[in-house]
Specification:
The protein starts with a strand and ends with a helix. The chain is α/β, with parallel strands linked by helices. The protein contains twelve helices and 15 strands. The radius of gyration is 21 Å and the shape is globular. The strands form two sheets. Strands 14-13-12-11-7-10-9-8-15 form a nine-stranded mixed sheet. Strands 3-2-1-4-5-6 form a six-stranded parallel sheet, sandwiched between helices. Helix 5 runs parallel beside helix 6, helix 6 runs antiparallel to helix 11 and helix 8 crosses helix 11. The chain folds into two domains: about 160 residues, NAD(P)-binding Rossmann-like Domain (Rossmann fold); about 160 residues, Dihydrodipicolinate Reductase, domain 2.
Length: about 375
């Protein structure tokens, strides 16, 4: 069966981000939404929606769609095109309402950008309604689909890593927008649920507001794992992850360009064991990360299997971010999860000046 796919929000992540990638690194193409649908053997990219004319024109030209298949109104697109899979790549300010519109239209699977929503109440709403409508939801915290992180998780699941003791993440970013990636990969590797946190934000003034702020945190998991997050300036440790187990250790360095695998071997001082670095194994063939997401969305439609990063994972990342800020607001106290006040939220950094997309603003500036 071939599935019909559409994109709502036709900016860089929805459409043209892959065109900017000119050399190898940590992304394996196709990566973003439209290129993944266009390349997938079981999917046809049929439509897109965006309120901005410039975005619609670029999307139609790039993906060979006639103007009648690009819409200013996403509800009209859903009603006319009846897609099976829909990507939602809009600003987070409207993501909640558009996800609910998409679920109500009978779509089988949604691939949403992060953060999932602005408030816990919105995220709760998404999780409940998509479960009720039997909609599979993937949240694009893409590190879960990175081959090396997937291999690390495989080693943990197989038992060869031993028990995970600690996960540390260095990621200079706001806690909600790109912090979604950092918190989510900590959760993925820790393998449990966060039960309480301590947080320190960049300043008292920033913590008192609703903006997307940097901060540091200590996370306690229900399975005994402990984690540290540094999202304040990280210096030479740029997007680095360290996972320590009883039998092995994995370090992702230089933004994921370098990987270290350590395990305990005989031969240490006084006949003891010693950590030794061994080659980190990667697959001989690496499938595009976006194709892997689409594979899981299709499996969700056909068999009900859960995707690697679901709407419940998106909710959990947002809740940790908010709890870290709440800890600082209350003088650095321990915050237990789940949080009671579901009205709490963070205005993700992408919402700044989001009435007009950045690409459109740049184009209009050039013309004037």
């Amino acid at each position: 069966m071939t599935y019909r796919a559409a994109v709502i929000g036709l900016g860089r992540m929805g459409s043209t981000f892959d065109d900017e990638i000119e050399q190898g690194g940590t992304l394996f193409l196709p990566y973003c939404h439209a290129p993944s649908y266009a390349a997938h053997e079981r999917v046809e990219l049929v439509a897109g929606a965006d309120p901005h004319t410039e975005q619609r024109e670029i999307f139609a030209a790039r993906w060979g769609l006639s103007t009648e298949h690009v819409y200013a109104d996403h509800k009209q697109m859903l009603a006319v095109e009846k897609p099976d899979i829909v990507s939602i790549c809009t600003t987070a300010r409207v993501r909640h309402s558009i996800i609910l519109d998409t679920a109500a239209a009978g779509v089988g699977a949604i691939w949403a950008e992060k953060p999932l929503a602005l408030t816990l109440a919105e995220a709760d709403d998404i999780v409940a309604i998509c479960a009720e409508q039997n909609v599979t939801v993937a949240v694009n915290c893409a590190r879960r689909w990175t081959p090396a992180f997937a291999e690390t998780r495989r080693r943990i699941d197989s038992g060869e890593f031993g028990a995970v003791l600690q996960v540390t993440a260095y990621a200079n970013c706001g806690l909600s927008h790109n912090g979604s990636h950092a918190i989510d990969i900590i959760r993925y590797l820790a393998g449990g649920e966060v039960t309480w946190v301590f947080g320190e934000m960049e300043s008292d003034v920033a913590a008192a507001g609703e903006g997307d702020i940097m901060g540091n945190g200590y996370l306690a998991f229900d399975n005994g794992v402990r984690a540290y997050l540094r999202s304040m300036p990280t210096g030479q440790a740029s997007w680095e992850i360290d996972v320590i187990g009883t039998e092995q250790r994995v370090r992702s360095l230089a933004g994921g360009l370098d990987w270290e695998l350590w395990r305990t071997v005989p031969g240490g001082p006084r006949g003891g064991d010693v950590p030794a670095r061994i080659p980190f194994p990667l697959p001989a063939r690496i499938r595009g990360m976006g194709l892997s997401v689409v594979d899981e969305l299709i499996a969700g439609i056909e068999t009900g299997t859960k995707v690697r990063c679901s709407d419940t994972d998106g909710l959990a990342a947002l809740e940790v971010a908010i709890a870290l800020r709440q800890s600082h607001r209350q003088g650095g106290v321990r915050m237990d999860l789940p949080l009671t006040d579901r009205s709490l939220g963070i205005h993700s950094s992408e919402t700044r000046e989001d009435d007009v997309p950045a690409r459109v603003r740049r184009q209009r500036a050039v013309r004037t």
